[in-house]
Design a protein that fits this description.
The protein has three helices and four strands, in the order H-E-E-E-H-E-H. The protein is α+β, with helices and mostly antiparallel strands. It has a domain at 9-77. The chain has a four-stranded mixed β-sheet with strand order 1-2-3-4. Strand 3 (45-52), helix 2 (54-68) and strand 4 (73-74) form a beta-alpha-beta unit. The longest helix has 15 residues, at 54-68. The protein is globular and about 40 Å long.
Length: 102
């Protein structure tokens, strides 16, 4: 029988804030700055989840992209994208649309 792993306080806070139902294990890293999960795509690093010190994670993902030979990293946010544009020099690439069905 598999062992159940209890989420950390940081993971629980992230899930509460984001609405995510689980923490993705792809490329998962956790340290004193928080945690992040990511996957390498052919043209970028796709950040799946990130929590904690945004400045640290920006430097981390910029370096990871360089190390992997790709020119960018991408992420999705439910928060104000203009704030990320100002803080990290991010730009909106596309918009996620949702259609509610009955």
């Amino acid at each position: 029988m598999g062992q159940s792993i209890m989420p950390t306080d940081a993971q629980l806070d992230y899930m509460r804030r984001s609405g995510d139902k689980y923490i993705d294990g792809n490329g998962y890293i956790e340290n004193e700055h928080g945690f992040a999960s990511w996957v390498a795509k052919p043209d970028c690093i796709h950040v799946i989840q990130v929590y904690g010190d945004g400045k640290y994670w920006d430097v981390f993902f910029r370096q990871l992209a360089k190390d992997r030979g790709v020119g960018s990293y991408m992420f999705y946010t439910r928060r104000n994208p203009k704030a990320f544009a100002r803080k990290f020099g991010a730009k909106t690439v596309q918009t996620l649309m949702q259609v509610e069905v009955e």
